[in-house]
Protein: Sugar ABC transporter permease
Organism: Pullulanibacillus camelliae
Amino acid sequence: MKKKIHLNPGAMYVTPAVIVIALVMLFPLVYTFYLSFNESSLYSTGLKFVGFSQYVKLFQDHLFVNSLKATFYWTFGSVVFQFLLGFFVAVVLNQKFIRYRSVLRIFIMIPWVLPSIIGVNVWKWAYHPDFGIINYFLKSMGLISHNITWLSGAHTALLSTIIVNVWKMFPLVMLMIEASLQSVPEHLKDAAKVDGANMVRTFFTVTVPHISSTCYTIIMLLVIWTLNSFVFVYALTGGGPAHSSEVMSMYVYKYAFENYNFGLAAAASVVLFLITVVFALIYALVTMKGEGER
């Protein structure tokens, strides 16, 4: 007797979505890896396989090496201050003596819910060397004697974009940390106080260990998001001046859509993808470890 084949009805519903995801995400990813081993430009008639020499050429390009350094400073500076500022604000808002916490929380969340391009334009006016409010206040307080060209200075352009990125993302950190702080059991804090621990010791021995998994997750997500961030650098400085604020995403954009060197841009994209994958794996391991501990 022939066995009847029973089709899983769940698979029938999922298959179309899997096919769409494969076409939209998997195919471009595979093609980018393939393109990274070929020379390809707008002016070439076809693909010319060059193998790993494309990557050798990439790492010999001082602009790419500079973009690696800029990406490190951009990611490190953004994530550190996003987390520290968000953590500090969350701890302050979580204190019982703070009044109107709901109203304060709404105002603090404005940068995060505001469309990025609107926030960028507001900051561009604030950074304006002649009419910007930042230079006006700094000169009023006697901290500077002449106007600073924040977005066109080689030493201030990347710092200026980091400040905007911190302003944009720290409210999200604050929201997630505050939610985690509110889940700390009160009886653990009371037990620590009974044992003679003061407020600071209770915070570091009871609260911090309880919210540590949330902190790890937030940091990893911030790293992944910041590595792939593009809008602020593109809209504020365009990678300038003299490539001083050109992070890897800007490097890929310029080589692909301005220089039309698709092969080199694909190779740079693969490098950025692999760096992101490393942090994504770390995030997955931390998440699984946190679930195992629970």
